[in-house]
Write a structure and sequence with these properties.
Radius of gyration of chain A: 31 Å
CATH class of chain B: Alpha Beta
Helix content of chain A: 40-55%
Largest interface: A-B, 27 and 33 residues
Strand order of the largest sheet of chain B: 6-7-8-3-9-10
Distance between the termini of chain A: 28 Å
Number of helices of chain B: 7
Order of helices and strands of chain A: HHEHHEEHEEHEEHEHEHEHHHHEEHH
Largest sheet of chain A: 6 strands, mixed, barrel
Radius of gyration of chain B: 18 Å
Strand content of chain B: 25-35%
Distance between the termini of chain B: 10 Å
CATH architecture of chain B: 3-Layer(aba) Sandwich
Number of helices of chain A: 15
Oligomer: heterodimer
Strand order of the largest sheet of chain A: 2-3-8-5-7-6
CATH superfamily of chain B: P-loop containing nucleotide triphosphate hydrolases
CATH topology of chain B: Rossmann fold
Shape of chain B: globular
Chain lengths: ~400, ~240
């Protein structure tokens, strides 16, 4: 066995240039897989962040049925108790209670139907990015209970600026009686996302609760976790733990199924790319091994003549392929690591580009994971051995007399 | 003419046809032959006379179209697969024209390759290799790779590889063809000496007169048949 291993390894260096080219072909394939996977990880994290960090949160808690009906009367059961638990939950970085309902915003010039959201500014600052995107005015500074923060697109439609007055109208929970109140535009934000900039208006939580007639009730608690992957972790007990007493806790993957599906497509496309790369690599390996086999036909004839069984010759080819794989993996790992780390420093600028309903707000950076450095090299190694079975089979079935035609 | 009392090799009605472009080309046309244990025999003949094919059939490297081959009463022509590989490993040594050592194995590794196939234990293997290296005058060359030694030295190593497992028969195809006459003569003397000391049977295919001069027996093939079978006067 050890002699066969030595033979396999040393044979690699008989034609150094060919080995280098074949090794680079496999190595570059592996490096591209590692880099693409890392970049996709970064892209996915960025997309999730873009989709959830702006406003939605990485998860939400509602009263069961609220998501479907948006009925403001469906308030979270024991909201104070839920908030107390969230406060102590080590996985939760921040949460923001909200009371919300569709309503009408009217200015002197125009009226628009929007989602009116009552927020606790101090908590909302820690969760959403509305405050980070204020372009004019401020996000609930001071204690003005009639402050309202709207998007720039809505402000343009209504023809208002900070300091202007607008009227908000909602229908009260249960009775359906219309409740109206006047507000002063205190801040205008801009996300660059049409739905956000045109379709939301933020008021103080207490004011929204009063208008909706839900007492101290809240319709939604938006969540932010310490680890962005926490929300989509398989069999995560968090969601069931908070889905009690008629409440339901769901991750962004449930709230944004279109994004979840788009991300699913990402991984399918990566799998296709891997399949194509492995296909190219397979031809490279087969070509290299066959060239080596035909070049050394006489040598294989000698080995068979002196008593090596056909299985021994097959093993030799497999070991040679294994040695080639090991060398290629070493090259691929170095290439992949260097490429990924360099791009991780520089980033790829996709800022402002919208994809699958989300807008990239920061440069994309690849995310390196141990899995990429273990699974892909291992798969490359096993795949190389698998592909080598064909030339090994051919080598094992050589007619010795043909291989030795020029001698015995 | 001498007779073979204890035959090592027996062939009966041995035939081999090849097909080339749909045409049947007979290479060996029915050879009946007995070669005794310990003989130093040479097969000669012009190109295309069937020398190589005949040696291939004897060693089981090729299968006959008709006829039988026995080696020490074992039907080589009926064997196949691993049994035939194992039989060659244990009973036949090969010396090829162009040495054909494995270039990525050292002299020592080339020689011990067959012993490894046989599963000979480490210490025993080391002793055998050391003994044979001494016998062929190649002590101190164990760690050299074949491309780093001369053609004559490579052929010595090839002979050592053929003999290390103490086979009953050594088949040598034009072993001196790539060597100068002095080196070739030295090697032939060495093989003749080994033949006398060990009793191993040597069967050559050659055009080299030096080989014929040292042979016990010279068999001439012509068109796939034995044209002449002569014993040396020394014998």
């Amino acid at each position: 066995m050890t002699l066969a291993l030595r033979l396999g390894w040393r044979n690699l260096f008989r034609n150094k240039r060919r080995t280098l080219i074949a090794g680079l072909a496999i190595g570059v394939g592996l490096a591209s897989l590692i880099f693409t996977d890392a970049l996709m990880q970064g892209m996915v994290a960025q997309m999730i962040k873009s989709a959830t960090a702006a406003y939605l949160g990485e998860g939400e808690i509602h009263r069961r049925g609220f998501r479907l009906t948006q009925e403001p009367g469906l308030t979270i059961h024991d909201a104070a108790g839920v908030e107390a638990r969230l406060e102590k939950d080590p996985d939760v970085e921040a949460f923001a209670p909200r009371a919300e309902s569709f309503g009408m915003i009217t200015s002197a010039a125009e009226a628009r139907s929007v989602m009116i959201v009552g927020v606790d500014p101090s908590r909302e600052r820690l969760l959403s990015q509305v405050d980070d995107n204020i372009r004019q005015g401020a996000f609930f500074e001071g204690s003005g209970e009639r402050d309202i923060v709207i998007g720039n697109a809505l402000a343009e439609i209504l023809g208002v600026e900070p300091g202007d007055r607008i009227v908000a109208t909602v229908s009260q929970a249960g009775s359906g009686v219309l409740a109206q109140d006047m507000f002063r535009v205190s801040g205008i934000y801009r996300f660059g996302i049409k739905e956000m900039d045109e379709g939301f208006a933020f008021v103080r939580l207490a004011k929204a609760q009063d208008m909706l007639g839900i007492g101290r009730g809240i319709n939604e608690i938006a969540l932010k976790f310490r680890d962005i992957r926490f929300a989509t972790r398989k069999d995560n007990p968090f969601w069931t733990a908070y889905s009690t007493g008629g409440n339901e806790a769901v991750s962004w993957a449930v709230l944004l199924p279109q994004l979840r599906d788009a991300l699913g497509l990402f991984w399918i496309s990566l799998a296709f790319m891997a399949a194509i790369l492995f296909g190219i690599v397979a031809f490279g390996i087969i070509n290299t091994l066959f060239m080596s086999l035909y070049e050394r036909m006489f040598e294989f004839g000698v080995l068979r003549a002196v008593g090596t069984r056909s299985a021994g010759v097959r093993r030799l080819i497999i070991f040679e392929a294994g040695a080639l794989a090991a060398l290629s993996i070493a090259m691929g790992l170095v290439l992949g690591l260097v490429l990924t780390l360099v791009v991780a420093r520089t980033g790829v600028n996709y800022s402002g580009i919208e994809f699958a309903g989300t807008t990239f707000s920061e440069p994309l950076t690849p995310v390196l994971q141990v899995r990429q450095l273990v699974v892909y090299p291992l798969a490359t190694f096993l795949f190389t051995l698998l592909v080598a079975l064909y030339p090994a089979r051919v080598a094992g079935r050589l007619r010795i007399a043909d291989a030795l035609r020029k001698s015995l | 003419m001498n007779t073979v009392e204890e035959p090592l090799i027996v062939t009966e009605g041995l035939k081999k046809d090849y097909r080339e472009g749909g045409v049947v080309v007979p290479a060996v046309r029915g050879i009946d032959l007995r070669i005794g244990a310990g003989e130093f025999t040479v097969i000669v003949g012009p190109s295309g006379s069937g020398k190589t094919t005949f040696l291939n059939l004897i060693s089981g490297l090729d299968s006959p179209t008709a006829g039988k081959v026995w080696l020490r009463n074992r039907p080589v022509s009926d064997m196949s697969g691993d049994a035939l590989s194992d039989f060659r490993r244990d009973h036949i040594g090969f010396v090829f024209q162009a040495y054909n050592l494995i270039p990525v194995l050292t002299v020592r590794e080339n020689i011990e390759y067959i012993l490894l196939l046989q599963g000979v234990p480490d210490d025993e293997r080391a002793a055998w290799v050391a003994g044979i290296l001494k016998e062929i005058g190649m002590e101190g060359f164990e760690r050299r790779f074949p491309p780093r030694i001369s053609g004559g030295q490579q052929q010595r190593v090839a002979i050592a590889r053929a003999m290390v497992s103490k086979p009953e028969l050594i088949l040598a195809d034009e072993p001196t063809a790539n060597l100068d006459s002095e080196t070739g003569s030295e090697l032939l003397d060495m093989m003749r000496g080994l033949n006398r000391r060990t009793g191993m049977t040597f069967l050559f295919s050659t055009h080299d007169r030096m080989v014929m001069e040292r042979a016990d027996r010279v068999i001439t093939l012509h068109d796939g048949r034995i044209a002449k079978d002569e014993w040396s006067r020394r014998t």
